Amino acid sequence: MIKYYFILAFMMWISLIFVNAQPIDSIGFKFDTLSKVATTPVKNQFKSGTCWSFATVSFIETELMRMGKGNVDISEMYFVYQAYLAKAQSFVRNHGTANFGPGGQAHDVMQSFKKYGFLYESEYSGYVPGFDNHVHGEMDAVLKAYLKSVIETPGGQLSQAWWPAYEAMLNVYMSNPALLKDQALKNAKAINFNPDEYVEITSYQYLPYYEQVKLDIPDNWFAGLYYNLPIDELQKVAIHCLNQGYSLCWDGDVSNSGFSHAKALAIVPETKVENLSGTEQSKWENLSEAELKKNMYSFLSPVPERIINDSIRQMAFDDYSVTDDHLMLLTALLKDQNGTYYFVTKNSWDAKSNANGGYLNISEAYFRLNTVAIMLHKDAIPKDLKKKLNIK
């Protein structure tokens, strides 16, 4: 009997060895850092739709660090204020057919920087009175309602009072940075940052490749131009950019079930067993569809992800399953134990918003499907693609 228990114990020990020696992708994520860019602290857009300004300001701050100009804290709301002015003019001049809302694009910040300079956070916070964080719901509703009433005026002709009245409302909500106009221009001159050295790139089949195109998204109210590349080359640009020590500003979709800021991960699981192959197919084929999706979206370890090509991207764009609902900053490149790339992403939802200090890792499949556009320094583009795009 003692011999029997000895043999049984030995067999159980052996089984534990084999259990613990199962494929590494079933025991969690193992990341190797391939490149990393120094950046400024994570900030908090709080209850405002201003991710575009937070992401782009973070991008500019990171570029200034790369250029040896120190760690600076630039006001996001300064650019938001200027955008509210410009969008109101556009909305009224287009009789309400142009987009008016809190959203925007990376180029909105760059254009404002060129024209109006910038203020530091210590010079202009832009907080709505009564709050010590950015709470814009009331302001957005009031401004939009006012502009709609202006264009629907029964007289058929606008007064000369509508614009001063709009400015007055905006100034009450955000305070008027025009009083610091000279300081903003002085700041820009002193920092010597050139917005013209930065370009935006997108990737959609409905637009001609290797040309500058107008991207048809609501928040491109400024009608900014983007270079258009196939997705393989767009991913090549992003990886090369980070490997060369540059960051990039990312515009994409974070509304689907594969995105979990709380788990600090964004993936695109393959939830159809028939699309899996070999050992992966046998590993999942006995699960029900509900069990399969539950396991795939557990965010506990690497899972097979969808293969994303240009056609799949275009379909997702056309059926609204991918929209430009959020901007963030990409600061590092990782590779997991299966050889999959991940982009380390700096969010603007507060450093305490998840256990990863406000950062998350987005897989290359997620990047390929959900990227709407990127902004980066033109020198961070591979030379062969820079030549194809005719960027000097």
Task: Give structural notes.
This protein is of the alpha+beta class and 392 residues long. It has a single domain, classed as Alpha-Beta Complex (Cathepsin B, Chain A), CATH 3.90.70. It is built from 13 helices and eleven strands. The protein has helices spanning 2-20, 51-66, 76-93, 106-116, 137-151, 162-174, 181-191, 231-243, 278-284, 289-296, 310-318, 364-370, 383-388; strands at residues 32-36, 198-202, 212-214, 225-228, 248-252, 259-260, 265-266, 326-335, 341-346, 359-363, 371-377. Strands 1, 2, 3, 4, 5, 6, 7, 8, 9, 10 and 11 form an eleven-stranded mixed sheet that branches. A hairpin with a 4-residue loop joins strand 6 and strand 7 (265-266). Helix 2 (51-66) crosses helix 4 (106-116) and helix 5 runs antiparallel to helix 6 (162-174).
